[in-house]
């Protein structure tokens, strides 16, 4: 079988509405012919110095490609006719099975069986003998239908528990610092950065031996010593340098109007500020407290 014979088969198949009779081993014979052409091309390529430019190698390559294209065209045209023939046979109509190759005969038998099975099922659905919704259920070995198990449902992520805040250790006090300044409810918070000031305000230093200041209630402030624990008075913090010292920072005397807590002034000193305390603070810190209505000046 060569390319000319295959071209004749193709032309005949195109002209006829029915399948032309082909040998049972038609496709096997074509496959052997193509393999023979490939062997000839391989031998010719090995015998020449430049196989890519050799005319005989190019001729064999063209014949191989043409043969494959022609036989594929023959198969596609015959399959279309084969499907129509199988539909006739499934409907118990006469169908000529002569002239089919072995590969086409296997396809024909499979198509007839599938068409008959599908046709019977559709008729049962139309007659109400089979529920159309059960179509697609996997059959069991006993011929019964069983639901196809669905995939496992995704596990829902457990709801995250509310974080439990650790209880403070009664024996451990938090380290003093600006972050521990309490923030009263409903009032504007006073941050440590605000109380530190920007250092842009400078005034003349207050004399080291400045006298104490007395508020309206007669509480005395301005001394560096802490009040004794048994006098019952509110703790007051001195903002003045020790006698004989001068830190060169401008200061102002204030009455604290709400609890602020511990802060570190621009003079690197710690101040524990509570309501009604009278203190002398660096001007930068004093101005920040007054602006946020956490203190009032006594000057």
Secondary-structure blueprint:
Elements: H1 3-15, H2 26-47, H3 55-90, H4 102-126, E1 138-139, E2 145-146, H5 192-196, E3 213-214, E4 220-221, E5 251-256, E6 261-264, E7 270-273, E8 278-282, H6 283-291, E9 295-297
Antiparallel strand pairs: 1-2, 3-4, 5-8, 5-9, 6-7
Helix pairs in contact: 1-3, 2-3, 3-4
What would you note in describing this structure?
The chain is an alpha+beta fold. The chain folds into two domains: 3-137, Methane Monooxygenase Hydroxylase, Chain G, domain 1; 188-297, 3-Layer(aba) Sandwich (Ribosomal Protein L9, domain 1). Helices cover 37% and strands 10% of the residues. The chain has a three-stranded antiparallel sheet. A two-stranded antiparallel sheet has the order 1-2. Helix 1 (3-15) runs parallel beside helix 3, helix 2 runs antiparallel to helix 3 (55-90) and helix 3 packs parallel to helix 4 (102-126). The longest helix has 36 residues, at 55-90. The N and C termini lie far apart (122 Å). Residues 154-168, 228-245 have a biased composition (Acidic residues). This is Gins51 C-terminal domain-containing protein. InterPro entries: Gins51_C. Residues 1-25, 127-254 are annotated as: Disordered. Residues 254-298 form the Gins51 C-terminal domain.
Strand tally = 9
What is the count of distinct domains? Answer: 2
- Proportion in β-strands: 5-15%
Mean pLDDT figure: 73
Overall CATH class of the largest domain = Mainly Alpha
In the CATH classification, which architecture of the largest domain applies? Up-down Bundle
Could you name the ranges where pLDDT drops below 50 across 5 or more consecutive residues? 138-146, 158-164, 170-189, 197-245
List the total number of helices. 6
Tell me the series of helices and strands, N- to C-terminal: HHHHEEHEEEEEEHE
The N- and C-terminal alpha carbons lie at a distance of 122 Å
Radius of gyration: 52 Å
User: Largest sheet, order of strands side by side?
Assistant: 8-5-9
Question: What is the global morphology?
Answer: elongated
Q: What structural class should be given to the helix and strand makeup?
A: alpha+beta
Largest sheet: 3 strands, antiparallel
* Fraction of residues in H or I helices: 25-40%
User: What is the CATH fold-level name of the largest domain?
Assistant: Methane Monooxygenase Hydroxylase, Chain G, domain 1
Biased composition (Basic and acidic residues): 7-19
Domain Gins51 C-terminal: 254-298
Biased composition (Acidic residues): 154-168, 228-245
Region (Disordered): 1-25, 127-254
């Amino acid at each position: 079988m060569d390319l000319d014979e295959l071209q004749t088969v193709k032309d005949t198949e195109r002209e006829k509405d029915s399948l032309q009779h082909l040998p049972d081993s038609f496709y096997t014979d074509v496959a052997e012919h193509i393999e023979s052409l490939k062997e000839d091309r391989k031998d010719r390529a090995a015998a020449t110095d430049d196989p890519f430019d050799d005319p005989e190698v190019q001729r064999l390559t063209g014949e191989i490609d043409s043969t494959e294209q022609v036989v594929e065209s023959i198969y596609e045209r015959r399959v279309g006719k084969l499907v129509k023939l199988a539909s006739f046979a499934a409907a118990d109509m006469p169908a000529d099975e002569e002239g089919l190759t072995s590969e086409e005969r296997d396809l024909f038998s499979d198509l007839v069986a599938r068409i008959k099975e599908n046709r019977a099922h559709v008729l049962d659905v139309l007659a109400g003998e089979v529920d159309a919704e059960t179509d697609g259920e996997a059959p069991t070995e006993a011929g019964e239908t069983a639901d196809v198990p669905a995939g496992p449902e995704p596990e829902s992520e457990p709801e995250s528990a509310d974080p439990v805040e650790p209880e403070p250790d009664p024996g451990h006090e938090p380290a003093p610092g600006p972050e521990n300044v309490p923030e009263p409810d409903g009032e504007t918070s006073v941050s440590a950065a605000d109380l530190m000031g920007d250092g842009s305000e400078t005034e003349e230093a207050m004399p080291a031996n400045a006298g104490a200041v007395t508020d309206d209630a007669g509480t005395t402030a301005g001394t560096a010593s802490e009040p004794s624990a048994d006098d019952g008075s509110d703790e007051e913090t001195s903002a003045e340098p020790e006698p004989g010292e001068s830190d060169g920072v401008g200061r102002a005397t204030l009455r604290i109007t709400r609890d602020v807590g511990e802060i570190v002034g621009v003079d690197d000193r710690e101040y524990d500020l509570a309501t009604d305390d009278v203190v002398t603070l660096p001007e930068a810190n004093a101005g920040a407290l007054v602006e946020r209505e956490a203190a009032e000046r006594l000057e």
